[in-house]
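As a warm-up, study this chain.
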Amino acid sequence: MAPHEDRAHLPVKHKALVTVAIMSAMVMQVLDITITNVALPHMQASLGATQETISWVLTSYILASAIAIPITGWLADRIGTKKLFVGSVATFMVASILCGVAQNLTEMVLFRTLQGVGGAFLGPLAQSLMLDINKPSQHGKAMSVYGMGVMIGPIMGPVLGGYLTEWFDWRWCFYVNVPVGAVCLIGLMLFLPEKPLTRRDFDLFGFALLAAGLAGLQLMLDRGQHADWFSSTEIWIEGAIALCGLWMFAVHLVTARKPLFAPELFADRNFVSAAVFMFIIGMVMFAAMALLPPLLQTLFDYSVVDTGEILASRGIGVLGAMAISGRIVDRMDPRLIVAFGFALATVSLWMMTRWSLEQDWVPFVTSGVVQGMGIGFVFVPLQVLAFGTLPPTSRTEGAAVLNLTRSIGSSIGIAVVMALLARNIQVSHADLVQHVTPNNLPVDPTQLNRLGQYGSVVLQALDGIVNQQAAMISFLDDFFIMTIACAVAIPACFFLRKPRPRPRGAPAPVMAE
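Now compare it with the structure written out below.
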């Protein structure tokens, strides 16, 4: 397509219906990542799993999805975007039904793996198609719609999962995908045209290296906390596989004649920079979402449903900011919008470092809305900048890379903050205990043994207070580290390529060379 042509790469007759079908698949996929988190304790009892093995319900899905995402572009070119999309939705629906009827942990892990493979292609295909069916001048609005689908899943997942588990059964967390998937399938088969096929060789060696590296990295991150990190031989092995696999893949990507990913992707400064920023978004957003439920439920005694409703406040900020950024992204420098979004996210994380055990729900909601606005202002212009200098034929592959970097960022972010949380709780507990002496207590703890069981109750209550304070300090330390990571990204936004100014009424913005 010529640079100044303002027309869709894939024109469709019923764009609104196609958009609904595409976004239904996107929401279904991202919702399923978080909706099952709430139901894990109920699944553990029903499937006869232990506290450690039940985590494989999440790990198997994430691992299968991470390995399958990189081949999205090749499969779309080989069998067709429409066929791959329809097949992925159908696979996801069937796997959801199988997960709902699973009778033991082995079946659940197997079906979740199948579900992860089906869901892996939905995100990149949805993003690519949203760009293809819209004119370049409407890409900002298209990415705002797509971004709402991506961000609303992690926010609404805990709420919906809590209601379904409480009112019905944990199996409905999977059955709920069936009606959504059916609507999506009908819309795709009736209204989505097929894109031209492109025959190209498959880089099996490169895919094997990348799959091994991603599998090792994901297993190391998921298993690290349980296995005490590098005190375990298992973690050393998984870390070595990840390092060797990813390093060899990077070398192979540069030296191979026909690598797994098109070389022009990584020659584009905007795309590479956007991939780095997507990594940061995944790390900060998903790490925060992983920390807040245990904080609210264990330290503030909120129920699962109340926790979900508090976390849903982020959705208000996300939806509002994305609606605004989608309208202004082609009227001002997108880099300024991205920097403003990261500034808002930094402010929200700094607000979280000021929390205390005596506060009510208002600070949670306030910081959540601000953080949601920050994410919303970052996501839309970042997508426009990332794809603004790529040819339409590279969009599916580029979308796969961006989804992969966001997934890796979220995995690393969650693993890091959880490891720091566990470590800092022990350190903070030891520091606080040093200050618990008979001189600053109303009674001498050494004399409580005379009270028998009542003295033991007092000591347990005292230890509980210390544990609570140590945990709160550790959560605040995590929020402070995330604040710094987000603040560093603000000046880095200007490494992105500035778009050319265009007169009013001109077609889509064209990135400067």
